[in-house]
TrEMBL record:
This is YDG domain-containing protein. Keywords: Nucleus. One of its GO terms (biological process) is negative regulation of gene expression via chromosomal CpG island methylation. It comes from Choiromyces venosus 120613-1. GO terms for molecular function: ubiquitin protein ligase activity. Residues 153-294 form the YDG domain. InterPro entries: PUA-like_sf (IPR015947), SRA-YDG_sf (IPR036987), SRA_YDG (IPR003105), UHRF1/2-like (IPR045134). Signal peptide: none annotated. Residues 301-320 are annotated as: Disordered.
Length: 320
């Protein structure tokens, strides 16, 4: 398939010569290609035979293709991997609503308990649960249910300690505008919110009221200067530093921090980006690191959330 060959060719070029070697015209074409593939009707075992999934995985590298393109590729690939080949549009980076579960919530008994448990039913309100052909459950926003706009600075109606079992629930309530990305914002106005979710434990530092937050890693290209990648997400945080804007901070249970919730994801208040600098990790890969300081006058970080009742409800429906 020519699509797979073209994607592989562009990726190899980027790895050899660096992300800056990909012209804007090719990025535009790749985005158009993603849209075409999202509406493509796969016949019989064409998807497996063409190995387009392997090529699509190449496009998920944000260090080579940037946040927008890589996140669109991730959403489409996740949709295919869940067994959903229904033609349809890809939700963009800042308004995605498709989510696949990789935990115990895939079981039918979990759904029955959701109906019976008022606490979990409340936090899962407006979330569709669909079983795919291969038996896997996918979660998406119910478009009939009101969704709060996340493109708002400040608390946006949230209370310190608000908690959700999944990031898609935080997306529904306007806490964070991306169902996958760690930074939600716009290049020209700044970052609205970030999620601390691990992945860069070797360079991230969390002191509660003060956070050192790492951006996307660069790639080492021989015989070329090592440059930290400036993705759209990174640029939005730089803009926040310049404007001293308020940034919502959410912590995920995935991050290795004593301030992280034991389950799910929690809103911990407003911070400002005080400074940023370029660093190199232990492998010599360059990246931007941002210093965030919690704004005074807020309620303290509520480490009691999720509370015992919420944890018990979560355990029942996910069988964890």
């Amino acid at each position: 398939m020519k699509w797979r060959w073209y994607i592989s060719k562009v990726c190899n070029k980027a790895r050899e010569s660096g992300a800056t070697s990909i012209p804007t015209t090719e990025i535009v074409f790749l985005n158009t290609l993603l849209t075409t593939l999202s509406f493509y009707r796969w016949v019989d075992d064409d998807f497996t035979v063409t190995k387009i999934g392997k090529a699509m995985k190449l496009l998920t590298d944000e260090t080579l293709f940037g946040d927008d393109l890589s996140n669109r590729a991730k959403i489409l690939l996740e949709r295919w991997n869940s067994g959903n080949f229904t033609p349809g549009p890809i939700e963009d980076l800042f308004d995605g609503d498709y989510f696949s579960s990789d935990d115990g919530s895939d079981s039918d008994s979990a759904d029955e308990r959701v109906v019976a448990n008022s606490i979990y039913r409340d936090v899962m309100r407006g979330i569709n649960i669909v079983t795919t052909a291969n038996g896997r459950k996918t979660y998406s926003l119910d478009r009939r249910f009101p969704k709060r706009d996340a493109n708002v600075f400040g608390a946006n109606g949230l209370t310190v300690g608000d908690w959700w079992p999944y990031q898609i629930c935080a997306l529904r309530d306007g806490a964070h505008g991306s169902r996958m990305g760690g930074i939600h914002g716009r290049v020209n106005v700044g970052a609205y919110s970030i999620v601390i979710s691990g992945g860069y434990e070797d360079t991230d530092e969390d002191y509660g009221d003060r956070i050192l937050y790492s951006g996307t890693r660069g790639e080492i290209v021989l015989n070329r200067p090592q440059i930290a990648p400036i993705t759209n997400a990174t640029m939005s945080l730089i803009k926040s530093c310049q404007e001293l804007g308020e940034v919502r901070v959410l912590r995920s249970s995935k991050c290795q921090s004593k301030y992280a919730p034991v389950l799910g994801i929690r809103y911990d208040g407003l911070y400002r980006v005080l400074s940023y600098e370029t660093e190199e990790d232990s492998d010599g890969k360059p990246y931007y690191r941002f210093e965030l300081q919690r704004i005074l006058g807020q309620d303290p970080i509520n480490t009691s959330r999720p509370n015992a009742e919420e944890r018990a409800a979560f355990a029942r429906v996910t069988q964890k």
